[in-house]
């Protein structure tokens, strides 16, 4: 489990690419302070398992499913990446529940500065838009953000100065792809509702939520 609060910007030192898989070697420092083989580190929002490490780099494998459903295969040697360790049980929860299981990708449509904020609009598929709501949470390249607006197949998020300075999002250009993870609570609620939307299974929503422990 992650929070979407990026700890460090790392650099892709090496990438071994198979037909439908990857092996990434990432240069880093902060996320390696207490690392062990088998630990989870989110790379641009994708939960990866550390297979080996040194004082200044770690290696992780990317399986075919992740290869096809995220932007990791688009990285190049030298690419900057957002990094976050899995949250410790004694940590502070500063963002929102982020699993590192990316739901899909989007493309940046526009960037606009307004005083100290930068608004970024991202095109998102209809299947993902169903889980997004204004003022709700979303992870973009692993960064916990609040949805500012949803309109015409796009979601708009706002970057505060800290996020502008400590993530890779400001370096993204129009047309660049980003990883999108929708709020896990919204996904569970939608799936729960779908299971009961057949006529023979329909129930009053309040009764359904109470039955399953939500209220």
From TrEMBL:
UniProt xrefs under Pfam families: Lum_binding (PF00677)
Ranges for the Lumazine-binding repeats: 1-96, 97-193
Any one GO MF annotation of this record: riboflavin synthase activity
EC id: 2.5.1.9
Reaction(s) catalysed (UniProt annotation): 2 6,7-dimethyl-8-(1-D-ribityl)lumazine + H(+) = 5-amino-6-(D-ribitylamino)uracil + riboflavin
Enzyme class: transferase
Single biological process term from Gene Ontology: riboflavin biosynthetic process
Residues covered by the Lumazine-binding domain: 1-96, 97-193
Keyword Transferase: yes
InterPro entries per UniProt: ATP_synth_asu-like_sf, Lumazine-bd, Lumazine-bd_dom, Riboflavin_synthase-like_b-brl
Keywords: Repeat, Riboflavin biosynthesis, Transferase
Known pathway: Cofactor biosynthesis; riboflavin biosynthesis; riboflavin from 2-hydroxy-3-oxobutyl phosphate and 5-amino-6-(D-ribitylamino)uracil: step 2/2
Stated role: Catalyzes the dismutation of two molecules of 6,7-dimethyl-8-ribityllumazine, resulting in the formation of riboflavin and 5-amino-6-(D-ribitylamino)uracil.
Subunit description: Homotrimer.
NCBIfam families associated with the record: PRK09289.1, PRK13020.1, ribE
Name the record gives this protein: Riboflavin synthase
The species this protein was found in: Weizmannia acidilactici
